Amino acid sequence: VARGRLTVVPMVGWRRPMRWTDTGLKWVQTSPEIADFGAVMGYAMTGLGCELNHFTHGVGSEYWFRGISNSLIRPDILQRELRALRLPGLDYRIISAPNGRTRQMGTGLYIEVTDWDEWQPADLSFELMRLACRMEPRNPYANPTRAQASRFLHEMGCAALFRDLAEHGARVDIGAYLRRWRIEDAHYREASRRFWLYP
User: Fold this and answer.
1) Which of 45, 172, 189, 199 is 20 to 30 A from residue 181's alpha carbon, by CA?
2) pLDDT at 159
3) How far is the CA of 20 from the CAs of 23, 26, 28, 46, 180, in angstroms?
4) Which runs of consecutive H residues, i.e. helices, occur in the chain?
């Protein structure tokens, strides 16, 4: 049996509550669409919510993951609907940006984080799924291709939600999934705490 040696090199000056902008470090682009810390924040908020429906990440060819648009919903209506959800720590600003391929201007919403302490990143994705079921002409989760279903399940990791969206559409109880998720998250944090290297 092959054996290896693990050496842990402690970081200096980092604390658990820090965000990237607190570190003073230079951002290194991790992929073409994750060009900055703002895109990382947006990925957590919109990555899942833009699957299988008419929501898209970005506005024009800019603001990847921090901007969203839907070709079937006017930006002002989408802004009104999202604000009505009163998701903690979030607001939505209508913006325009050029599309590098067509040179036409695209319009959508930029997602503002207004309160870091209240912000729950994943909540928006779940609500985008329900909103798509309610405002698009047909339930986008009802008849996916096998490849689409496989990708969604791979990224979501929850077949129960997929079945629920397909069967109940906009009537799906998103709150129940979020409550269960928070309970599981709290259990994981407590179970892993003894392995934390930094306070």
Assistant:
1) 199
2) 92
3) 5, 9, 11, 19, 28
4) 20-23, 37-46, 75-85, 121-135, 146-156, 159-168, 174-192
Which pLDDT band holds residue 113 (cuts at 50, 70, 90)? very high
For 4, residues 6+ apart whose C-beta sits below 8 A from its C-beta are none
Q: How far is it, in rounded angstroms, from Cα 45 to Cα 114?
A: 14
Please give the helix or strand (H or E) that residue 179 lies within, else none. helix 174-192
Q: Give residue for tokens 């073409």.
A: 32
CB atoms within 10 A of CB 173: 11
Model confidence over 35-86: pLDDT tens digits? 899 999 999 999 999 999 999 999 988 999 999 999 999 999 999 999 999 9
What does the chain come to in residues?
199
What radius of gyration, in Å, describes the C-alpha atoms of the chain? 19
Q: Which amino acid is it at 120?
A: Q
DSSP SS3 for 31: strand
For range 165-187, the mean pLDDT: 95
Statement: residue 100 has pLDDT above 80: no
End-to-end CA distance of the chain: 35
